[in-house]
Known about the structure:
Elements: E1 2-3, H1 10-22, E2 26-31, H2 33-38, H3 48-61, E3 68-73, E4 88-92, H4 96-108, E5 115-119, H5 132-136, H6 149-155
Parallel strand pairs: 1-2, 2-3, 4-5
Amino acid sequence: MGGTFDAFHKGHKILLKKAFKVGDKVIIGITSDEFVASQNKSHPADAYQDRKKELVDFLRELCVFERSKIVTLNDPWGPTVTDPIIEALVASEETKNTVKEINNIRIKSGLNPLDLITVQMVFADDCKRISSTRIRVGEIDREGHVLTDNYKKKES
């Protein structure tokens, strides 16, 4: 599995818990600062080292850090397109298309396609998905609780 893991939130935690439930060893890709910058996001992301620290702290809290391998992603695929040992990919519904790309690349390279384990999007109290962007702009907190009255009025 992989991602930016910016504003580490409830959705990230659920995705990670699922990965460790189904996998003995979990490779977790974290996008590099350079890759994040190339994505032209509408908001800045925390530095790679800060994002990695939050992830590692959570993995230690779950007592699964020893079963993890953290890699830096400089592209959307990371080791999933070259590593024959990887068997499955745990991904959110919004990243299913990337998984299709990964499997196409694997097949062209003579590797077996990956099984896809999809985790449903996690929703905030306002029934909209939790995202780092929504957290960054102050709409919700990392657990999905709505933070501002202005946001509620704007959406009415």
